[in-house]
Amino acid sequence: METAIVNTKTKWGIDKTMRKKILFIVISSLFLSSILFAQTVWTADKNHCQLHFSARHFGIAHIAGVFHKFEVSMKCEKEDFSDAQIEMIADIKSVDTQVEIRDNDLRSPNWFDAEKFPALVFKSTSFTKGKNNKYKLKGNITIHGVSKPIEFDVTFNGRAVTMTKKQTSGFTVTGKLNRSDFSLGKDPIPTGVSNEVEVWANVEIGKN
């Protein structure tokens, strides 16, 4: 009696067992790749972050303010953060210069127009490591509906496990912008407010 021969090959000439092996290898490779190349996400510790700005008043004093509400996130793979992608969003209505009349004016159409443009947004394009824990942060900042390139100096202050129980890194960010580039407010002569505005931030950002 002849033994029946069962053809397990597919139309491509690969039997079912081999197909399963190939499928397993492909899925495993994709899974390993997602682990190896997954970016670590960092988010700001809101209780230990500050976002400041300062402008000269009639050239004789610096008047400073803060944004109380803002979010910072960072994605990176490298330990030295040199491939970091950074985003920051500040709530314009949270501006505070400790003078209520001035703060209301800043929120009004005279300046930020918070109802029409509620957020200040920064998105990085590069984060380049220099010497002695120094970095250059480049990106685009959007204020008053206008986007412009900007560059900041960044100092990496170190790592610690803080009260959040997360590995946390600290940074100090400093830079300058020209408010007239963003059609923000009136000319300096009638207002006494300089076009040049200094901005700086202290940020503690934890690994998720």
List the helices and strands and how they pair.
Blueprint: H1 16-36, E1 40-44, E2 50-57, E3 61-67, E4 70-76, E5 85-91, E6 95-96, H2 100-107, E7 119-129, E8 134-143, E9 146-161, E10 167-178, H3 188-191, E11 193-207
Antiparallel strand pairs: 1-4, 1-11, 2-3, 2-11, 3-6, 4-5, 5-7, 7-8, 8-9, 9-10, 10-11
What do you see in this structure?
By secondary structure, the protein is an alpha+beta fold. The protein has helices at residues 16-36, 100-107, 188-191, and strands spanning 40-44, 50-57, 61-67, 70-76, 85-91, 95-96, 119-129, 134-143, 146-161, 167-178, 193-207. The protein has an eight-stranded antiparallel β-barrel with strand order 1-4-5-7-8-9-10-11. A hairpin with a 2-residue loop joins strand 8 and strand 9. It is elongated. Mean pLDDT is 87; it is low at 1-6 and 29-37.
